[in-house]
């Protein structure tokens, strides 16, 4: 049985710290268990009372007449350890510590939390919290939480599961879901996560037959592998995961670090991991619930395209714009389909969006023909109907309900959405037919685009392959020549070049290579050569090579007097092609990652760089390339030739395997520029940084 | 009196085409006038009835006992002309034609619409429509419209004015506003706009003392000057205008063109014009209403910074991220302010966002000290309170109302926002104190950021100066040398270069200029030289110049056998600096516009180009530069020197004056690249396109 099953659906539960005063957390939690429909046995634990809120109470869990499935602990922090021991003595294996006063308060709370973690492990107890808001399972009437929401609202039962670290975040999500009529299957807040974390909660919700869609929110993450595994499991079972990770900006990340003490990695790495594992990242709670709403009611669009039928030309255009911006194409209908539309609605304008004009209101019977014709006239993953205020009109609305029903029956795998002002009764009737209803046209489009993206991500998701650790390189630092030799050995194409220690030597090499050549200073101590003028391009003859040798050595000596200079590299000058940057880095949570971007100012000025987990297989390398605008340049720019994308894919795969195989030693690799040419590609420069304490070279 | 006054607030009104059947548009409109609170005199006009819906009816406006302030015409299109004549005969000067069947249906509708426009002009009648939804003025109980919304809901009176072309768009806006409790002052849909357009409606709403905020939506625009004038008038009177223009994508623009027949200019020109005129462009109706809501209740934030107080660390971080992404800084509080916060709430974490922890719920009295300390600890334009579910709790909420009141009183020009789940009663109480209330944290932030942006735009807005038309240039086409001579005469720095007709000539020029040099083919028939290999960079000596001359001529001859070749340009090779593109274009609606962007792939690959109306004064030129990422490069890149921004500003101003002074002749100018250097700047290439039919050169 999944360890979370007893936290969501216990047959019996102890409330340690139960109180008669509903203003106190232990009183409020007991009240929620008593009053909101829970059918299991409730055991209030209170050191001094024999009865609490009308229920018989016990001084300790150890005294209970049975071993409860789970326990909620709401005592002050300093009493929690004793309560855990009592639970262990009684054989309780599933405990939620709702008490605060642990690591989040700093000081001795940190040590108390570490002790709590160790205590649970020693007893074989699975533990949620501390400092968590508890769990709910509305279909079971189970509300094991002190959330203040429950004083005024009870989230309705449904199929959306919620897993968050933050309790307020989670209760905000299920509160708003409830107000909108979106039902909840289970929700849990994992708090300080000494044991159960959001990843494990997601894992439970994937297995839970009562959950159809998962909403998750993270503030930090320490177990990257666990999170990847849970998300991939969801994708494999086609259960949508819509996820937020706060701290996406520097200010936010700093605040999150203060708040949770977790490491802030590169936010785009998080993006990449979520995407690769088939989860949709969103940036607001409202967007999360909009997508969850669509996914919980309707099929996810099988293709990223949309049809739009609107009683208003203006709103039709608004929705077409919103589709394009959100990544849904709006293909024009085939002429025959358009003829069929015009046969029943002669004044209908456009080819998609179709503007039926407001006169549709008087001829609602034609909507079925229009919608069927649209679906026949293009491969549409979704179809939107903008119907103004028809959803408020119980006299008129039933006239078109049949059209929606027919469309859903004939196109069971397409997403059909109604956009209109509406009353709850109309909305509920449509939802029962699998038709989501929105008031705002743009939100409708963005939600469906999210569902469409989710479907694509689920299809593409695949585990990151394991890579055996290679023999240690035994280097603590690598100069440019060594770095290039290493990546060449790893299978990357590298420009032939030669380390020269004298001007004569350089001239002889250049003569052999042919002109023009490139010359670069060679020194372990000067990783960023361009900054000191340490690169000469387009050197045209032997004379220029000789004087260039002196120039480079002099510049290096004056800019970095302490640097050990190893001479000058001479290489053929490459022309044409596009300069890209490929590299790897080590994320503190998710391990080795590959990056790709355009060279020049694109990476830094436009942040046009994409990440993926290492190692890459060709399919994911292709997607990594497509995630950057650089992909456009590779197709040929302004009539130029298309470039050797296959060579780039090979290089990315090889580099990623290299980084993954040496993950113990290598911190990052930067191949910049990596020139992609009409035929072939080559690394023009390379830099490898090793992890501290590795290799035999100088300490870094 | 403003011509729209009588369309919004008539003391008497004729309904031409009034019907006893409320299913018909003429029946429904009459019903709305009769039943929803209108206090003026209503005259049903019906050719055959003496009484309609219990009111005495007349066969024609001409027969009425008085001249009504305005008339609504709801007859079939073919009868509208007669009704207009009747109105004219009676002296009615303000008419709204709600009938459809005009240009929007094509065919003879187009001619009928042209005739209608002419007829109104001839009679001196101001006309809204045809094909419009009419106007409403909820504070007057006036609903001169057949909108189906009114069957179930009546927009409440308030201070938000709405001006749209599309009727459905407008009624969607005021419907949703009403559901949210946002009251409407006036709303009008202008339909096919033969006379009154959205710009004139905005002009009215600026003058209207009952309107505090204006929401507008356009599908097309034919009167660019009128729109600029109305928006600038709003900005000058500090009345916020929140505006949408659909057709922002290619697909949307094509659909809008089908729908309205209007020209689709460059969407970023629209962006620029709205911004320059102080209006905030938004992309969804919900966003429009969110910003309007804040502006209608609270002061606009005077600085673009925010403080965040949250009972949840996670939501605080979410909001900090949202602030940064929306352009609001989140400055850390000064230490003394932080100490003051901790003095009353010791467990509070962070420096902004402040995480009070959920324990705030039990100590609500400290919120006043916390908020006052925050405001004292940084220059904050706005302060957000995330309070979980406190807004649903009538027992607890009143405990903090005083804190909001005190904050509003002590900081009357700052925006104070509550974010929480809530009931209407709590929301209304706070709104009455000038505090907007949101449920979704991200929407709250984006709305306030919109209000903040609006305030900045209003402050910056200024009219585009008039420029006297210059003497005609008398050119129909200009080769590169002529184009450079023209922009040099206009005051732009241009590289010294020389047209050479022989290889010897070129070598002699190059010797004089010094090496290396740049060589370019010179021909009127080859505007895009790089595409045919018509540019040689870095030519190092006289021999190379001679062979380069032959190379260029041969390439040009083989690529464009018909081209007339004027020789080769020789110029010094410029190194260093940043290549930018500056140029002008002629927008079909808004006239001459200036553009600025980075050279290379940035403009096309990243669409990193910004527009502004010509002519520019230095202040707007600075903003134009800052609107592109190129601004970052000018500050010095990777430790490089900062570049001569002043020279760029001068060039942009000079080029914009040139384009504006020759707006009759010149269609576009492209100076690409325009090299901005450490000291000075210079145009390396230039291209001028003339309007068809202008000048003495070849026809284009």
From TrEMBL, chains A, B:
One Pfam family matching this protein: Succ_CoA_lig
Keyword Membrane included in the entry's annotation: no
Question: What domain of life is recorded for the organism?
Answer: Bacteria
SMART domains noted in UniProt? CoA_binding
- Entry-linked InterPro entries: ATP-grasp (IPR011761), ATP_grasp_subdomain_1 (IPR013815), CoA-bd (IPR003781), NAD(P)-bd_dom_sf (IPR036291), Succ_CoA_lig_flav_dom (IPR032875), Succinyl-CoA_synth-like (IPR016102)
For this UniProt entry, the molecular function terms from Gene Ontology, in alphabetical order, are: ligase activity
Q: Where is the signal peptide?
A: none
Question: Which parts of the sequence belong to the ATP-grasp domain?
Answer: 484-520
Q: Which PROSITE patterns match?
A: ATP_GRASP (PS50975)
Gene3D superfamilies, per database record? ATP-grasp fold, A domain, ATP-grasp fold, B domain, NAD(P)-binding Rossmann-like Domain, Succinyl-CoA synthetase domains
**Keyword list, A-Z:** ATP-binding, Ligase, Nucleotide-binding, Tricarboxylic acid cycle
Q: Does this entry carry the keyword Nucleotide-binding?
A: yes
Instruction: Tell me the protein's name.
Output: Acetate--CoA ligase family protein
**Which organism is this protein's natural source?**
Neoroseomonas terrae
The organism that produces this protein has a lineage beginning with:
Bacteria, Pseudomonadati, Pseudomonadota, Alphaproteobacteria, Acetobacterales
